[in-house]
Design a protein that fits this description.
- By secondary structure, the chain is mostly helical.
- It folds into 2 domains: 5-125; 131-286, no CATH class.
- Helix content is 82%, strand content 0%.
- It is built from 10 helices and no strands.
Length: 290
């Protein structure tokens, strides 16, 4: 079957994607501690290698993998969890399937390759048994509370105190106390549930997410002296945290990013604006000078 030079070049691109993903899945399979997950990853890797060989029948050319992509997705998976790394990579395969469709009727194997790619999604669902994903709810609880409470507290303290060191000190005391309280509440709440989640682990995830968020939001007040600039940076950091975490959740849970992001952003910034106004009123009517 004669194929145009343009189609041959596209086939080489498909080959590069398939052989690259073969190496990514293979490396992850070798490093995965769970025997079940490792077996699934290796099975998918073999599928990708098979697809590579199918395309090679038409290009008659060996294609090298993308080493940068292998390194990147391997370490994304190791740092942020295998589910996140793989699902992020699989999102790219969705567009690949659309590109494959243009070869339907010209190459016999195309339909079976597309079917295999779709089957990957079902197999990958079984990989969702990562321990930390069981505690996403606890992380969300700690993160949400820290963002709403501390952005509000720092906005109010900024106008009431107008001294960055005092604001940072007050924010740290408030934040750490709230984190301990949240962790204890999550421990008691989880203990009452009939769930696979461990109460101590749940409390650590909640308190840990809260404390990390506290330190990120307070950091500008420890580095700079202009309290308005510090507040602006804090709000910017809050939006960045919301964006990152909601993108992570949207990938691993296949949920909408935009809705969750907008909701959390509006709530956090709304509370900050109200608290800023309260700080102004308290300073003005109580005539407090620090």
């Amino acid at each position: 079957m004669g194929l145009s030079k343009e189609l041959i070049e596209k086939i080489k691109t498909f080959q590069e994607n398939e052989i690259t993903e073969y190496h990514i899945y293979s490396q992850l399979a070798k490093s995965e501690k769970s025997e079940k997950n490792s077996k699934i990853l290796m099975e998918i890797a073999e599928d990708e290698l098979g697809h590579y060989n199918d395309w090679k029948e038409y290009s008659k050319t060996e294609v090298e993998p993308n080493r940068i992509k292998i390194w990147l997705f391997y370490w994304i998976s190791k740092l942020f969890g295998i589910t996140f790394g793989i699902k992020l990579m699989e999102r790219g395969e969705e567009s690949a399937q659309d590109n494959y469709a243009q070869f339907s009727g010209k190459i016999d194997e195309v339909d079976s390759i597309i079917e295999d790619e779709n089957d990957h999604e079902d197999k990958l669902i079984e990989l969702l048994d990562e321990k930390h994903l069981r505690y996403v709810g606890s992380i969300v609880l700690g993160l949400n509370d820290a963002l709403v409470e501390l952005t509000g507290a720092l906005a109010g303290l900024t106008l009431a105190l107008q001294r960055t060191q005092l604001i940072a000190l007050s924010g740290l005391i408030t934040g750490i106390a709230a984190a301990l309280s949240m962790g204890a509440s999550e421990y008691l709440s989880t203990k009452e549930e009939e769930t696979a989640r461990h109460p101590v682990r749940a409390s650590i995830y909640t308190g840990g997410a809260y404390i990390i968020t506290v330190f990120i939001l307070i950091l500008p007040y420890l580095l700079f002296t202009n309290y308005y600039f510090c507040l602006a940076l804090t709000l910017l950091f809050a939006v960045a945290i919301i964006a990152f975490f909601n993108y992570y959740i949207s990938v691993v849970k296949d949920e909408s990013f935009k809705g969750r992001f907008l909701e959390m952003t509006v709530v956090s910034l709304g509370v900050a604006i109200i608290s800023f106004g309260i700080g102004y009123l308290i300073r003005h009517f109580m005539a407090v000078e620090v």
